[in-house]
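User: Can you predict the 3D structure for this chain?
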Amino acid sequence: GMSKVYTFGPTFRAEKSHTRRHLSEFYMVEAETILLKENEGLNQIMELSEDLCKFVFHSLLTKSPEDLNLFHAQQDMKTRFTKCLNTPYKRITYEEAIELLQKCSE
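Assistant: Here is the predicted structure, written as structure tokens:
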């Protein structure tokens, strides 16, 4: 059977931007999931996303460390990726996210 299915492809933003930092095109990985447990589905998706990110960081650190030199010389990407590998990602509820956003807009 197909236990792990991912789609990978270009994604385009529709809004206009006048800054250099804005990404108008990027590549996105989407995980196709089925049979999520009731009341645990969102947490399962977050765990899957965290695992995928950590897999990519681990692969970069172990299989392609020279590729990390492509990033800006001022950033220590090895340290940042290692920290991401060793730190659980923080999760907050929808209500907590709304509260944080409202505080930021004050």
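The chain has three helices and two strands. The chain has a mean pLDDT of 80.
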